[in-house]
Design brief:
By secondary structure, this protein is α+β, with helices and mostly antiparallel strands. The chain folds into four domains: 1-58 and 189-361, Multidrug efflux transporter AcrB transmembrane domain (Multidrug efflux transporter AcrB transmembrane fold); 76-182, Multidrug efflux transporter AcrB pore domain (Alpha-Beta Plaits); 365-397 and 519-715, Multidrug efflux transporter AcrB transmembrane domain (Multidrug efflux transporter AcrB transmembrane fold), CATH 1.20.1640.10; 433-506, Alpha-Beta Plaits, CATH 3.30.70.120. It contains 22 helices and eight strands. The chain has helices at residues 20-40, 51-54, 60-70, 91-107, 147-157, 172-183, 186-206, 213-237, 243-272, 278-305, 313-334, 336-344, 365-376, 378-393, 414-425, 443-451, 482-496, 508-542, 546-573, 583-613, 615-642, 650-682; strands at 77-84, 126-127, 133-140, 166-170, 434-438, 456-465, 468-475, 504-506. The chain has a four-stranded antiparallel beta sheet with strand order 2-3-1-4. A four-stranded antiparallel beta sheet has the order 6-7-5-8. Strand 6 (456-465) and strand 7 (468-475) form a beta hairpin. Helix 8 (213-237) crosses helix 11 (313-334), helix 9 (243-272) runs parallel beside helix 11 and helix 14 (378-393) runs antiparallel to helix 22 (650-682). The longest helix has 35 residues, at 508-542. It is elongated, with a radius of gyration of 31 Å. The chain starts with 19 loop residues before the first helix and ends in a 33-residue tail after the last helix. The chain crosses the membrane at residues 20-39, 188-206, 213-234, 246-268, 289-310, 322-345, 379-398, 525-542, 549-569, 581-601, 622-644, 656-682. Residues 110-131 are annotated as: Disordered. Keywords: Cell membrane, Membrane, Transmembrane, Transmembrane helix.
Length: 715
């Protein structure tokens, strides 16, 4: 076959196979890169982790955070300095504490001056009742910088102290600063580690010294384009991008984009055995693989966009962010990637270059033998698979309690250990302070009500400005515990009962409480919506009802098993004290949307083969043809999410491990064993109500055939 000619009896491949088209596509991507690459570097400049931006849109603590930011001095960063000596504070220690306070107060003056006469009271240093500690609070204006930029200099400025006098700089701002330090440079770190992991996996998969580089370039272009697109979305529509979502964007694009590359290369390699012209071969490969890849992308995008109904700003922001990343990966892998492969020709597969053959001899292979074994023992395969998944799901009975903010760090920083010291020596200041805003005329009434509320250790009236008066309230219980949350709820109930006060309660622990409550409410809304949307996409792709229901059921069971197994690892092996509030929803979204991908790739190929071979042979053929590539895709996607486990934050470790484990379960057990076994058990009814579910019409006098003997069917 020469040029663009089609084999006998085959329709011409069309204009896509013209020689100039691949070069045009590459040229357009070069132009796009010139525009997008500079914009991609600006994404970090619009990421935010401020409370007002990431908290639930309608929560009471959000209103407090917004009000604090709008009032003079209300957005100050609060640091708590806790000095302690095992044998008791000395006179020199106390003098050092007062000297440090005076020095820092002059260096970091508050944005709003203290009321007249207040300075005469001396430095606000407080000794503990046990005589072993002293503390003071410092409010630092945001004009001096963000918490992560201030906490380091504050710690350096207080290093000059007597031997044996320990100091922990803690407080809400210090925790924020240490949290931001974890995310500092995280985008570059995730990007580089992901590139290394994907590179190694591609080299291992293709065993070629050059082929691995092509999908890596295409996925890299998709990632940079996605970052630029998200930057434009932030500037144009004001969506919220925090550091967590920015890291997830990189993981999604690389993981999904590489999966698409593996699937397309597998089909391209097949067609190269039948077509001499590489452009013609690529057109046929795209015609075969693109529908399943597009359906996969549509499933993930639809699932991600369901997050838009979430009330938590950081969660709803992930919807368009992730969708933009998936779409960029889809476009790049269906345009730039095939164009590069065509331009480089067959030699890109060296040393295993696919040659033109009139007939390709099919070998049974591992997946063919597995399919034959499943066919012989369908019930055994089904029950054994469900048994494994059921055993793993038992882990859900383990510790699934909420993870406290102080337990988010893999290695507790000074701000977290400082809270423990503060509670040990100042038990009356057990939790993080609540911030209450009320109308000035009602401040005294609200203050009295708060003091009488069970669980409140101390309530201190604050300044009045902008038509609001603030009150600082210290609960008796430790931060982010159920007891402290109950106190916050009681305080809210009490102050809301003061008619006309318009009192609202916020603060760090109140923010965490509102976030946890909102996430629970979002789960009840988002999860059913994701299931419905994904089910519709599957129905449209497979043109059936039974098959989508079966596939969705297997994915849900797989999620329960992955979650249960992960809870066991987190609790019994890693020693985590709970599950971050955002993990279940994110893991469910990724595992349902991404996990169903492998079922899409298998089921769409099975439907294609069923048209020719019948349900039984069609599924076995599909498993044999797609087994290797889907397994490779699963390993790549799992490895990219596992990159998150290298970061020193418990929440990201939990998301990374859970999704990676779930993807492996889907790729190695659900898609490889359970789905084929169920399909063979259900037979042609799997495709109901499409024509594939009905027995083929047979000539007169021939007996009806059972599913195992289905003849070739026609569309």
């Amino acid at each position: 076959m020469a040029g663009n000619a089609a084999p006998p009896g085959e329709a011409p491949p069309g204009r896509l196979a013209n020689r100039w088209v691949p070069w045009l596509v590459i040229g357009l991507w070069v132009v796009l890169a010139v525009v997008m690459v500079p914009l991609s570097g600006k994404l970090s400049s619009v990421t935010t982790d401020s409370a007002a931006d990431t908290l639930p849109a309608s929560a009471e603590s959000t209103k407090v955070a917004v009000l604090e930011d709008s009032l003079p001095g209300g957005d100050d960063n609060t640091f708590v300095f806790v000095y302690h000596r095992y044998g008791g504070m000395t006179d020199a220690d106390r003098a050092t504490v007062e000297r440090h306070y005076n020095t820092l107060a002059k260096r970091y003056p508050p944005k709003v001056a203290a009321p007249a006469g207040e300075d005469d009271e001396g430095p606000p240093t407080s000794p503990s009742t046990d005589g072993k500690a002293m503390m003071f609070t410092l409010d630092v204006s945001t004009t001096h910088g963000a918490p992560e930029a201030i906490v380091g200099p504050l710690r350096d400025a207080t290093k000059d102290r007597p031997a044996g006098l320990e100091l922990d700089v803690t407080g809400p701002a210090a925790i924020d600063g240490d949290m931001d330090a974890v995310f500092e440079g995280i985008d570059l770190q995730v990007f580089l580690i992901t590139v290394i992991v994907v590179t190694l996996l591609l080299i291992f998969t293709y065993r070629s010294p050059v082929l691995w580089f092509i999908p890596l370039v295409a996925v890299g272009a998709a990632a940079l384009t996605a970052m630029a697109t998200v930057y434009l979305l932030v500037k144009g529509f004001g969506i919220v991008v925090n550091d967590q979502n920015s890291a997830l964007l990189t993981i999604l694009v690389f993981g999904v984009g590489t999966d698409y590359a593996l699937l397309l290369i597998a089909r391209y390699r097949e067609t190269l055995h039948h077509h001499e012209n590489v452009r013609v071969a690529m057109v046929h490969a795209l015609r075969s693989a693109a529908p399943a890849i597009a359906a996969s992308a549509a499933t993930v995008v639809a699932g991600l966009l369901c997050l838009l109904v979430a009330d938590l700003n950081s969660t709803s922001g992930l919807g368009p962010i992730g969708a933009a990343g998936i779409l960029c990966a889809l476009v790049a892998m269906l345009t730039l990637f095939p164009a590069m492969l065509v331009v480089l020709g067959r030699r890109i597969f060296w040393p295993a270059i696919p040659r033109l053959r009139t007939a390709v001899k099919e070998k049974p292979g591992l997946w063919g033998r597995l399919g034959a074994a499943i066919s012989r023992r369908r019930w055994v395969a089904t029950l054994a698979s469900l048994g494994v998944l059921g055993v793993l799901a038992i882990g859900l009975a383990g510790n699934t309690g909420a993870l406290r903010e102080q337990d988010q760090f893999l290695d507790a920083p000074e701000s977290v250990t400082g809270f423990t010291v503060l509670r040990q020596h100042f038990p009356e200041l057990g939790g993080q302070p609540m911030a209450i805003f009320t109308r000035p005329a009602y401040q005294e009434r609200v203050l009295d009500v708060v003091k009488d509320t069970p669980g409140v250790a101390l309530a201190i009236p604050g300044q009045t400005s902008g038509g609001w008066a603030d009150i600082s309230v210290f609960p008796t219980d430790a931060p982010d515990t159920a007891a402290e949350y109950d106190t916050i709820k009681r305080v809210r109930t009490a102050v809301h009962a003061v008619s006309g006060a318009e009192a609202i309660v916020g603060g760090p622990s109140a923010e965490n409480l509102d976030t946890e409550v909102t996430t629970s409410r979002d789960e009840k809304l988002v999860i059913p919506l994701v299931l419905a949307v994904v089910l519709i996409v599957l129905g449209l792709l497979l043109r059936a009802i039974v098959a989508p229901l079966v596939l969705m059921a297997t994915v849900i069971v797989s999620f329960a098993a992955a979650f249960g197994g992960s809870v066991f690892v987190f609790d019994a092996i890693l020693g985590f004290t709970g599950i971050d509030y955002s993990v279940p929803l994110l893991a469910f979204l990724f595992l349902v949307a991404l996990g169903v991908d492998y079922n899409i790739f298998l089921a769409s190929r099975a439907r294609e083969e069923t048209v020719r071979l019948g349900t039984r042979e069609g599924m076995l053929k599909a498993l044999s043809a797609t087994g290797g590539v889907i397994t490779s895709a699963g390993l790549v996607l799992a490895a990219t999410f596992a990159v998150l486990t290298t970061l020193p934050l418990v929440m990201l470790i939990e998301v990374g491990f859970l999704v990676a484990f779930g993807v492996l379960l889907d790729a190695l057990l659900v898609r490889s064993v359970l789905v084929p076994a169920l399909t063979l058990l259900i037979g042609r009814r799997m495709w109901w109500p499409s024509r594939l579910s009905r027995p083929a019409e047979l000539p007169d006098g021939q007996r009806p055939l059972v599913d195992d003997e289905e003849p070739a069917l026609q569309r």
